[in-house]
Amino acid sequence: MKPVIILVFVMIFGSLAGAGYFIVRDRGRSRNTAWALTARIGLSVALFLFIWFAHWMGWIQSTGLPVGR
Questions:
Q1: Rounded CA gap, 32 and 26, in Å?
Q2: Which of 58, 38, 35 is nearest to 46 (CA)?
């Protein structure tokens, strides 16, 4: 599971870097910035849902951190 999660994190940061590049290059006048940020949001939501599903299926376990300490 770790390689999949790390890969998606790299893709999220790559999308964020791409959006930053497009903001600097064309000053946000094209749709490239919006598409890059939309992709980042989509990847973030997909990662959250994947982690939730993997926990539900038992593929990953909680760390057991105590609550309320």
A1: 9
A2: 38
8 within domain boundaries: yes
Please report, in tens digits, the pLDDT of each residue of the chain (69 residues total): 789 889 999 999 999 998 888 888 887 677 888 888 899 999 999 999 999 999 899 888 887 777 776
Q: Which contiguous run of DSSP H or E holds residue 20? A: helix 2-26
Scan for tokens 């599971």, then name that residue. 1
Range of the domain at 8: 2-57
How many residues are present in the chain? 69
Number of separate domains in the chain: 1
Q: Which residues, 6 or more positions from 1, have their beta carbon under 8 angstroms from its beta carbon?
A: 54, 59, 60
